[in-house]
Amino acid sequence: MRDFAPTVQRLRLQYAKRGRLRFSSHRDFQRAFERALRRAGVPIAFSAGFSPHPKVSYANAAPTGTASEAEYLEIGVTTLCDPARLRLSLDDALPPGLDIVDVVVAKSADFAARLEASLWQIQFPGMTQKTLEEAITVFLDADEVLVERVMKQGKRIFDARAAVLVARVGISPEPVLGAECAILTLVVRHSTPAVRPDDVLAALRRVADLVPPTPPRVTRLAQGPLAPDGQGVGDPLELDRE
User: Fold this and answer.
1) For 31, what's the count of Cα atoms within 13 Å in the CB-facing half-sphere?
2) Is 155 within a domain?
3) Checking phi first, is residue 230 left (phi over 0); if not, alpha (psi -120 to 50) or beta?
4) Do residues 155 and 219 share a domain?
5) If residue 210 lies in a helix (H) or strand (E), which one and from where to where?
6) Based on the domain organization, do 13 and 50 belong to the same domain?
7) How many CB atoms lie within 10 A of CB 172?
8) Considering the chain, what percentage of its residues have pLDDT values greater than 90?
9) Where a domain ends, among 51, 84, 113?
């Protein structure tokens, strides 16, 4: 059993999944990130034991197929690193579309608790604003909307309505795929099981017979602490910057 240098610093990273890389799975990203650590020469710390692995922990990854501007992970390193330089070197080592947005020094161990909610944007190419507004009104008026999803433990039925705190409908100022494009903005409280955008789409189909003419485009714009009024999502790295 090898001896490894101890962790002297923990850093929190915000990264984005953009363009075609939104179709990469969480495991795909893990492999790409570990390669980037080696290419960038990051002094990553390793766990002890007979099967040591890099000290990287991931927080609440977005589902495969969704873009995101707000994914987070934490690494442990064996020598002190400058966050700004680390961001640049890792960003250069990752493929375009997997982008390091920010790096900060971790100042506490409560990061997972800060991720209380997500802000999602769903584009509906080919759908009018009126059609989407009518469906959302039916959804919001419901006390409960049960949806079904197959999970590792098997099939699960749960309520997709209670976790949705905000649902606003707008219209894209520019055509998407050559057509009018309604936009749904959601603030969704994190829960168990997590209510994902595809669960909301399933709920809209169930209560309002909403069937998008083309596959919706989903992006997580933010995740972090829920605003006091429940209408927005804050920056989870703010406490580490203070």
Assistant:
1) 4
2) yes
3) left
4) yes
5) none
6) yes
7) 15
8) 87
9) 113
According to the model, what pLDDT value does residue 2 have? 63
Q: Are residues 62 and 129 in the same domain?
A: no
Which pTM does this prediction carry?
A: 0.93
- Using pLDDT thresholds of 50, 70 and 90, give the confidence band for residue 3: low
Each residue of 90-138: pLDDT tens digit? Answer: 999 999 999 999 999 999 888 999 999 999 999 999 999 999 999 999 9
**Whether residues 101 and 147 fall in one domain:** no
In the block, tokens 């007979």 appear at: 50
Q: What letter would DSSP give residue 177? A: T
Closest among 205, 173, 197, 207 to 66, alpha carbons compared: 197
- H/E element, 68: strand 67-77
Cα gap 194→11, rounded to integer Å: 26
Whether residue 118 contacts residue 222, with contact meaning beta carbons closer than 8 Å, is answered with yes
Tokens of 94: 């990752």
**Whole domain around residue 19: which residue ranges?**
9-113
pLDDT on residue 174: 87
Query: Residues with Cβ < 8 Å from 48, sequence gap 6 or more?
Result: 1, 4
